[in-house]
Write the structure tokens for this entry.
Amino acid sequence: MSIQATHISKTFGDYRALENVSLTVPDGRLVSLLGPSGSGKTTLLRILAGLEYPDPDALGRVLFHGEDVTDLAPGKRGVGFVFQHYALFRHMTVEKNISFGLRAMPLSKRPSTDEIRKRVNHLLELVQLNGLNKRYPSELSGGQRQRVALARALAVEPRVLLLDEPFGALDAKVRKDLRRWLRTFQEEIQITTIFVTHDQEEALELADEVVVMNNARIEQVGSPQEVYDKPKSPFVIEFLGNVNRFRAGDSHHSTAEAGVLYVRPHDVEIQPSGATPHQQAIPAKVLHIFSAGNFARVALERIGTHEHFEAEVPRERLRELALEQGHTVTATFRHIRLFEKNGFIEDTNLLAP
Amino acid sequence: MAAIVSRTRSFVPPKSFRTITESAPVRWTLTAIAVGFLSLFLLMPLIAVFYEAFKKGVQLYLATFSDPYAIDAIRLTLTVAAISVPLNLLFGLAAAWAITKFTFRGKSLLVTVLDLPFAVSPVIAGLIFVLIFSTTHGWLAEPIKAWDLRIIFALPGIALATIFITLPFIARELIPVMQAQGRDEELAALTLGAGGWRTFFHVTLPNVKWGLFYGVILCNARAMGEFGAVAVVSGNIKGKTSTMPLYIETLYMEYQTVSAFSLATILSLLALATLLLKNFIEWRTAKSARH
């Protein structure tokens, strides 16, 4: 089931949560809405689910598989929604929670008690919680609750699965496991899925397509690789992964306004001081070395301008260089991106002296 | 076994235990003041009620309850409670639901109005109803006479005054509970295709049942015990519009001390039962919260 949202605007009083947002999600995709808090991502998800309505004066429409569902109640849209804090019915057992949607169906469509029990067991198997039928939500761990919420949403056989910060309330280890599990799970059942997150790592690892949102608008839509490697705006490059920023110098004077240069830490190479100077190399002082993990992070200060930046260096390389705090080195940039006031200019090799 | 015994013997309370509480004299003084105060103002009156009621023997105590006026008073009080508690149950649920789950114009006004009965003296509340419904000088005197209704000095007036006085109890009890629970469970039910009624009876109501029960027993206790407002609107006609609290006062004024206190024991027992139930509910909610 493909999802299409066109010209969606939403205001809460004076606050503008969404401004003329349009989005298309092809059938069977796993898409992430990524952005900082207040960017409008959750509001967009809730509008897709029918839990909020777009501003009536605007032209906002929501289409599922080409069919206009804008005025349809959430229960009639065929969406499965998983809430950030799960919103399990606290006084019902796992079994009752999962079967709630089936039991709420009109008599003509409602499956028999036997059929309901079978489906609940099947779903519990699917989310790997067999045998927990009679437990109450309070007796489950966070990860288990999350999966019960998922099973409950899937019980009514939705055409679309919407998840609001699905891993937000879990600890790091469980989050990682559950993330992988959801990935394979979604591939298996092939349901169009949209999830909201503020965690770029989560979005990049899990989604087929990432929708980067900022300030009530969509900044960029693309595959994880695309948004990471070809960011269309300073916001996207700064939000996705670590990045160093430098002021573009006067040497680049196509416009009056100085632009901003961005270099990813893994595009910074460190060489002993005195290595062949060229346009993309600058002298720098080592401030700190954080050497936990496969890659060491080296904090540097550019000599002359006192701009701080960071380099990611393999540990072996670090050993070769025998770096220590206070050393002066030459930093070479493999890949620089330049943004000016009116947008992305080019991949550049210009660097201010 | 021996190891365990020796370990328990060598147990010394950690120092932090001792340093965080006040010194013994302070603790004892504070406790003594609290217990003394409670005995003087709560326990003693309660004992006095039962002592006075049984002073001249069980026979005389029981005789009170064969007095037809007393029976009428008990019946009237029960009737008034049976009318006002269910109505306030409906109103309290509706008000708490509206206030906590929706935003609308005039919401803060509704919250203020809910507290009005707490702020207004019961006598004034009674007078308001007399001013509105009296057949001689009330605002609605004409239509009341035209339809031959009896409100003031009759059951409807007593019920109205009682409803007004007990209005806040249930809503006040439910609002914090519902606020704490938020709207997510209801929204989840909505996305699963449940309608409004199903959501209310299967999701909202079970979640607030103990708060609701607590509100109902408080509301009931107050409905049966209300004196001031009812005294103004009822006219206190023996056997007709005299509720239990009013009849107790009448008996006392007529120097029938034993009968007055005997009847008072019923209201006191109601108070005790209410407290017991309240404790039970608090224990239950604490248990389900721990879940």
Observations:
- DSSP finds nine helices and 19 strands in chain A.
